[in-house]
Write a structure and sequence with these properties.
Layout: H1 7-15, H2 19-28, H3 33-38, E1 41-48, E2 52-55, E3 58-61, H4 65-72, E4 78-85, E5 97-103, H5 109-112, E6 125-129, E7 145-149, H6 158-166, E8 172-176, H7 182-195, E9 202-206, H8 217-224, E10 227-231, E11 243-248, E12 253-260, E13 269-276, E14 280-281, H9 285-313
Parallel strand pairs: 1-4, 4-5, 5-6, 6-7, 7-8, 8-9
Antiparallel strand pairs: 1-2, 2-3, 9-13, 10-11, 10-14, 11-12, 12-13
Helix pairs in contact: 7-8
């Protein structure tokens, strides 16, 4: 006669079972619920919203926030690689989630943090709506990469964005749909020089719908002693533009402003990054030829446009 499984045996099985299957068993098998809740729950991604919970890209519709609480309540340990919280009221008060990547959406980060286990910090990545988290500067040490976005791109949070960028404790930052003026870019480069930022420090600017191009180059080149250079082949990554701007930094590193087409929906992103000295050079004859050819094509297009305009007026 086959012996029934012990509590510890079932717990071990649940710990390594697919997370979605566990949630289904929890919902349909009340007899197994207590042992299932006792085992650590490991999930790749979770999104918590008002009327649904998305687990590992599988959506579970629920009738109320209390139902989501029932799914999560009573668990000893929950580990989530990528966690997105769109409604904090669905979380049980005693739940502490361990995560590496947190997206607090349109909620004040201070409301979300009590539900995150302390051992999660520093996070690999933290995405925050700067419009909703006025005290964000207090949490710069909580993450290795800080992603900033705002509800309305009206510039109201410009001072806060700049104060975070200029802060000595500031981590690597990604600006979503937030553009920087040439003056701010120049000040930031000088700020990095003053603090002697480490190699690998990077600021990324990206837009979900548009290519993120370089700021006004003439003003930046003049104000920061920058020069147009080209990445060496050993530095070039996939979809990275070879042509870039180098700013003097110190004896071992240089600050590079460049673009790379690896953003959301394949859009171009702009990066300001501290790289080892010698990552760039004056370029080859082929680089000069390509630049001249591009300029020649632009001039031809402008001439064609002028001719069409003149023909329409005659």
């Amino acid at each position: 006669m086959t012996k029934p499984w012990t509590f510890l045996s079932l717990k071990a099985v649940f710990e390594y079972m697919d997370g979605n299957k566990r949630l289904e068993l929890n919902s349909h098998c009340p007899a197994l619920r207590s042992v299932e809740l006792s085992a650590p729950l490991n999930l790749q991604s979770v999104t918590l919203e008002n009327d649904k919970i998305v687990v590992n890209n599988v959506c579970y519709k629920v009738k109320s926030t209390e139902r989501i609480k029932t799914i999560l309540d009573g668990r000893k340990e929950v580990r989530v690689e990528f966690l997105k919280i769109r409604n904090s009221s669905v979380l049980p008060d005693n739940l502490k989630i361990r995560t590496r990547s947190l997206d607090s959406g349109d909620i004040d980060l201070e409301v979300v943090l009590p539900f995150i286990k302390r051992t999660s910090f520093p996070l690999n990545e933290l995405r925050v709506n700067i419009s909703k988290t006025p005290n964000l500067k207090e949490y710069l040490g909580f993450t290795l990469t800080l992603i900033l976005f705002e509800t309305n791109n009206d510039g109201e949070n410009g001072d806060l964005v700049r104060s975070i960028l200029y802060d000595r404790k500031s981590p690597n930052i990604v600006l979503e749909n937030i553009s920087l003026s040439s003056n701010t870019t120049v000040t930031l480069i000088q700020n990095w020089k003053n603090y002697q930022k480490d190699i690998g420090t990077v600021l990324t600017m990206q837009d979900e719908y548009w290519d993120q191009d370089l700021p006004d180059l003439d003003e930046i080149l003049e104000a920061s002693n920058g020069r147009i250079v080209y990445f060496y082949d050993s530095i070039i990554q996939n979809k990275m533009d070879r042509r870039c701007i180098s700013f003097p930094f110190n004896e071992t590193s240089e600050v590079i402003l460049y673009t790379i087409r690896d953003g959301p929906n394949g859009k171009r992103r702009t990066k300001l990054e501290v790289l080892p000295i010698g990552s760039t050079g004056p370029g080859t004859l082929f680089d000069t030829f390509i630049d001249s050819l591009s300029l020649f094509i632009v001039v031809l297009l402008l001439i064609d446009l002028l001719l069409l305009l003149l023909c329409s007026l005659i």
